[in-house]
Amino acid sequence: MDNEKLELIKEKIGKSKVAMMTTVDENNDLVSRPMYTQDINDFGFFFFTNEFSDKINEVEAHKSINLAYSDHDQNTYVSISGDATLIHDQAKIQALWNPILEAWFPEGLKDPKLALLKVIPVTAAYWDGSANKMVQLFKAAKAMITGEEFDSGEHDVVEF
Q: Structure pTM?
């Protein structure tokens, strides 16, 4: 994975730790749910998951998923398309473990349903309108008065 591109996407995600993860269910409908990002590194994005959940059945049938991050305060949004894989790397699980996770995995690190979902990004799109709200309001008013298109900030698509 290209470290420079990954660092750019990590910067755009910023402090947003919760992604809306979208999978495809057995009826080919899109299903989204919030997932807490445990780690982002050269190997992918990592999320703790219940190995026996519908989400894993969906990933096993359609590995392509989407992760959507938003930071409304910074007016920054990131959409990542990638391939998801269930992993049982005990060293990685232990390294990322936090006791708060016992709310979902009561048996802790020995919970039989505990696993990691790894997402390897394929593409990432971002929209960064992080100028302060007064600047954004001024740009919107200027666009309305002049008839020019509103400049909402930086937008790009990154291929991994």
A: 0.86
